[in-house]
Amino acid sequence: MKFINFLFFLFLSLSYYTSNAGEGMWLPFLLSDLNESEMRDMGLQLTAEDIYSVNQSSLKDAIISFGGFCTGEVISNKGLILTNHHCGYGQIQKHSTLENDYLKNGFWAMNHSEEKTNPGLKAIFVKYMEDVTNRIMAAANGAENREMAIQEEIAAIIAEQKNIDTYDHQIKPFFYGNQYILIATESYGDVRLVGAPPSSIGKYGADTDNWMWPRHTGDFALFRIYANRDNQPAAFSSENVPYTPERFLEISLNGVKDGDFTMIFGFPGRTEQYLPGVAVQQIMEVVNPARIAVRDELLAQLDRRMRVSDAVRIQYAAKYARISNGWKKWKGENLGLQTTDARGKKAKREAEFQELVSQNEAWQAQYGSILEEFNTLYASYQPHVLRETYFSEVFLSGLEAVRIAYTMKRFVENPTEKSAPKGLDEFYKDYNHEVQTEAMIALFELFANALPESEQPRAFVALGKKYKGNWAKAVDKLTKKSSIATEDPSKLLAGLEGDLDKVAKQISNDAFYQFAVAIIDEYLTEQRPASREVKDAIDALQTQYMEAQLNVFGEDKRFYPDANSTLRVSYGQVEPFSPVDGITYNTQTYLDGVIAKYIPGDYEFDLPKRLIELYESKDFGPYADTNGKMPVCFIASNHTTGGNSGSPALDAHGRLIGLNFDRAWEGTMSDINYDISRCRNIMVDARYILFIVDKFAGAGYLLEEMTLVETAADNL
Ligand code: ARG
Ligand code: ASP
Fold this sequence. Notes:
Blueprint: H1 2-17, H2 31-34, H3 36-41, H4 48-51, E1 63-66, E2 70-74, E3 80-83, H5 85-95, H6 102-105, E4 107-108, E5 116-117, E6 123-131, H7 133-140, H8 146-164, E7 168-174, E8 179-188, E9 190-196, H9 199-202, H10 206-209, E10 221-227, E11 241-242, E12 251-252, E13 261-266, H11 277-308, H12 310-339, H13 342-358, H14 361-367, H15 370-398, H16 400-406, H17 409-413, H18 424-429, H19 433-450, H20 458-466, H21 471-480, H22 490-497, H23 500-508, H24 511-553, E14 568-573, E15 588-590, H25 591-596, H26 609-616, E16 631-636, E17 648-650, E18 656-663, E19 681-685, H27 686-696, H28 701-704, E20 708-709
Parallel strand pairs: 12-20
Antiparallel strand pairs: 1-2, 1-6, 2-3, 3-10, 4-9, 5-9, 6-8, 7-8, 9-10, 10-11, 13-14, 13-17, 15-16, 16-19, 17-18, 18-19
The structure holds arginine (ARG) and aspartic acid.
């Protein structure tokens, strides 16, 4: 018996030590403990202290959280920042007009005074991070109200910090509340647009190529941070000057080759690596199929109209991109989870867990029934999560008319200047009533068939009954006299310029408004709280399960916390992969591939003439590789997720070699189950960015403020 156990342990340790290098989003201040030696084995030439330090300038000082959901990095000592075109898309769009269509034609400020201000856009630097778990736990343990004790201690630590420095502070839970980390940040609020390529480069391949490798997109844009005369954060002012950073990234002209070390420094948003198998099964079998089903239908409805009308295409391009982005990711995620047998792996892991737990009395008492409880909880969560998913996909995010109607509730109940709905002009500019009506009919029908009646809002069931399941008729009646879901919003818009009480009264009598409010209110006050109750129990158990995994496996395995929009380092190698038997993907794409995909006049694959000319004359400047080819994108095994867009890809010396913007479709399940056999992040090659700025845009003066490094081949 002893012997068997020993073998079991040995097997266990080996299987964990030969873990996927590539997997993990690591805390930068723990690299020296957990990662430095592995990173150096893989080729890193720097120390952990060069990457993250609180005592000296380090690479982290060049990394910013950009605009709330992306990453960016400083690439000059004048505060120039690099991020993705799709991260700056909103800003580029806002500055665009029909005469100056920067989305279509690109934009390049030729001097500082031409750079464009973006109210509300922030660049946030991390100053330091500190583990405060012990203090939080000391306060929590034994407290009568644990959650309250934690919140109070968090507030106390932050208050103390205010006496020490002037940064912004927050304390975030990691490992589902098993670790707490204090994060001090400094936020710059004057960030200006400097340059962006035309969408035919920055968004080349659009939705068709999104999430795909091989990729040919130059997904980058340039911004600049401004500070006051003391180099401190300041709101926009014409007195502000370009920010002088503590650190900026050098850019390598050497490019990459297979096997090269790479790392990604940025703000990954959300992953779920430590779920039990039943949860993964629920995602695969319930949540993702529901999301995909709704979006299949919605995308088909939009696509049909966008194809035959330029006006509709322009109105719906950004919405289509958003809906399609999630839809395609979830399809890839399900495929990847199946292909890599995520369920089987979880089951194996859980058997090991249960075995180890059973050998330790204390563990057995504390953790012995966790997995069983998960089974019960997830089973009772199933109808809730199905309803949640359909409801939010259809009514909260899918049908824009329902959503906009509901946003008027506050105004209707208390009509004032302040509560009046904002941004309606913009909403209606991109609203096509025919398209929305067709989508509504299709999604109402889908919703009615997808859920048992008892799970549908009463007002929705009543509507269906009234028109005997004839949804076309139901929608027609509902919207016929509506001033909101309408072809002609002028009455509503004019009303809002006039007597507010009167227009509020009109809205409150609008059948479509009443319907939107009835179903969403019922959902928010009855159905969501019911789901929340089960979900809270699941979350509490997940906290316990995380603690159990850390304790039970912690001796043999290094753990990284799930992504939570905090600063992380991922590292891996430039490496090919085989998505299916018989195909292996290369790691690098070239301008030749861009040209091969060219479809003149197409909305996804058109190209600027100038780029074709440069290709034909092979006018690549110093940016071509040693074979004279112009590199465009490359892949590596860095573990990334949404939020890592705009993150720098750095080489072994910490120099920028690329700009992260996506993942390969076959590996999007990395959010749940990273697998090095197929998880790859996609980066624009730094040389392509420089080529576009210099040769394509003629904005070579921007390169003068950057530091470009080329190492002779024998020094590499
Ligand atoms: N798939 C990438 C990400 O998740 C890029 C999305 C932007 N591009 C697009 N065509 N929607 O954010
Ligand atoms: N495209 C994603 C982003 O915008 C990155 C990813 O999901 O890999 O952050």
